[in-house]
Amino acid sequence: MSKLTTNLLIICGTAISLCAASYSYSTTSNVLAPEKQHNRATKLITHFLDKYHYKDINIDNTLSDQILSSYIEALDPNRSYFYQKDIDSFQIFRFKLDDAISKTELSAPFQMFRLYQARVDERVLFALDQLKTNFDFKVDEELIIDRSELAWANSNHELNEIWRKRVKNDVLTLRLADKKPSEIKGTLEKRYKGIAKRSEQIDAEDVYQLFINAFASTLEPHTNYLSPRTSENFEIRMSLSLEGIGALLRTDGEYTVVEKVIPGGPADLSDLLHGSDRIVGIAQQNEKEFKDVVGWRLEEVVALIRGAKGTNVKLQILPGDEGQAAKIKEIKITRDKIKLEEQAAKSEVIEIDENNQKYKIGVIDVPTFYIDFAAYQRGEKDYRSTTRDVDKLLTNLKSEKIDALILDLRGNGGGSLTEATQLMGLFIDEGPIVQVQDSSGHIEVHRDRDSNISYHGPLVVLVDRYSASASEIVASAIQDYRRGIVVGETTFGKGTVQQLVDLNNFSSGDDAKLGQLKATIAQYFRVDGGSTQHQGVIPDIDFQTIFENEEHGERALKNALPASSIAPVKHHIGDIDTQIINQTSKMHNSRVKANEKFNSLLEIFQLDYDVRNQKTVSLLESTRKQEYQRIEVTRNEYQEILKDTDENLSKLDDDEEIIDVLLDETAHIAADLTKQLEAKNSSSFVYRNH
User: Fold this and answer.
1) CATH architecture group of domain 229-337
2) Distance (Å, whole) CA 501 – CA 216
3) Of 78, 196, 483, 607, whose CB has the highest number of CB atoms within 10 Å?
4) Which residues are known catalytic residues?
């Protein structure tokens, strides 16, 4: 799918007016064309990108070729609207789109979009007509889900066949959700008519945003343009993460997808909604009927989900871990305001018995790097921050005489760079933590200047594929200082810095609103000179939960900046040498071979991976039912194995609890590390100049 699906706009229909009774359409008389403010916005965008973007940019024919491919992908990512003859006709623009950017000659992308509108008009009519069909679900045929790399359709018959199967799949999905035929037809009529209705709302601002983001995506994935309307909706989007259900949403094709569940929010605490889940229906607490929201604009979906604290919102979702053939599931979440304390670091103690020797392992879970800026600016002495909270937790854990510490950074997507720097300072003497290089090549070194160390003992950092940005800075610094062992999965790999520029600040009085530009202006580098960008932080002990050829994080994003390196900066080196890491790794590998829970968890990961990467779905009803049952039975069998009565439990749902297998194994690794350091007669770390 196109990486431009992070746009807040769903481009899914044509500018047509709907006559509901007869399903007939007439093209609007308003012809989409570039507007005056787009010229001014384009000039400002190219100026800032040329002057401040981290990547050198040449707006030439080579880039024009890339922009055309990117724009076509943005318009029709799944190759379900255009014909091959349409793609051939676009070749006249192959080396003209650089002029659209550099000379603000924007007619070409608007001309392409108008043809796209006509093609969508045809598909909407066909989809509605297909609802009159009595589909035979005993026919063994499949729908290809991902057509992004397949050939474009050469004929109307070929494209009709693609859409016949698509509509049939829509019907089957609702049928398997126990919907009556009349309900199915009504829901899908509304869905397809909704595509038409919302397409009428597409204006020049929307088309301009889509094209500029096609251009921006050729540079790297974190640079994008927000139109004036999108800029305003961005504020709504962020407020939804803080007051509502606590989730960041994005659009992917015609679906609203959960990008991230905010730690400590209602969705997180309920454990009912997760990243990559697709929201297909919404109802308020007193409503029996769900509104089908497939094809809706993101701001419209957000408006339905938002609501007063204490009220319920009901969602119909397609669970992300069940893949494209997921069965609709209904959940209910009580809206609330996310409190800082719910996102705050928390601690616990795990007791490990190794050969009749007990170890107390402290765990500090850091879900994000936060600071209460409002309290800080008011001058309150007891303002909350990650570093302050962790420091207090360390004091409490030390009073319990822990033998080792786990810093749990799983799912930590980053936050305050200052907090990441200061947090690292709790574990080392003063020194550099991260280097930041801007587009001019200037390097700024962020340092911990406090010589106090809050914790001297054995340290293990637990990360996963969602640990990103600031959490990668901490994990990499722990490695570079040899202060502890990093375990888990290779991290996300986001090692770049973005800045938001309000273009309206540079407009004259005659200009309309111009929107905002988010551009990558710098890159993080480790103190050893290496990069977390693209490659992430590679753990010292890999739990091997990421499968061969599985793409995730920055590595899965098109045009992501590559890893690079600069000169290292002088820093201290601790006692965690290669010998200790290798020996600890051997002990881990030996232990997990016989660990039924650990291997069952790997089987669940494999199941999820297989389901997520399905290329086709069966349209044979009996096969779909068998597949649902197989996945459910298999998952339940593994979860039965994972059940435990230990104190170290994490809530799965209302009826069962499972052990946090990865945290439990990390605790054993921490005990192994402690034993090795004890064998070296070292209860604290001795630093040497490097």
Assistant:
1) Roll (2.30)
2) 14
3) 196
4) 469, 480, 494
Tell me the two tokens of residue 661. 């297998």
Average confidence score pLDDT of the chain: 86
Q: Where are the beta strands (DSSP E) in 526-634?
A: 541-542, 616-618
Residue 392 has pLDDT above 60, yes or no: yes
Task: Output the pLDDT for position 657.
Answer: 56
pTM comes to 0.86
In whole angstroms, what is the distance from residue 321 CA to residue 316 CA?
Answer: 15
Domain ranges of the chain: 3-222, 229-337, 340-679
- Beta-carbon contacts of residue 599 (< 8 Å; ≥ 6 apart): 592
b/e map 514-541, b = 16+ CB within 10 Å: bbbbbbbbbbbbbbbebbbbbbbbebbb
Question: How far apart (Å, rounded) are the C-alpha atoms in residues 665 and 660?
Answer: 9
What tokens does 448 get?
A: 């911990």
Dihedral in degrees, nearest 10, Cα atoms 25, 29, 34, 35: -130
Segment 238-263, tens digit of pLDDT: 444 556 788 888 888 788 999 888 88
25's tokens:
């359409």
Topology (CATH level 3) of domain 340-679 = 2-enoyl-CoA Hydratase; Chain A, domain 1 (3.90.226)
Phi, psi of 358 (to 5 degrees): -95, 140
Closest-CA residue to 575 (of 472, 481, 670):
481
> CB–CB of 34/280 below 8 Å?
no
The pLDDT of residue 588 is above 90: yes
DSSP state of 58: -
Average pLDDT over residues 196-216: 88
How many Å from the N-terminal Cα to the C-terminal Cα in the chain?
Answer: 46
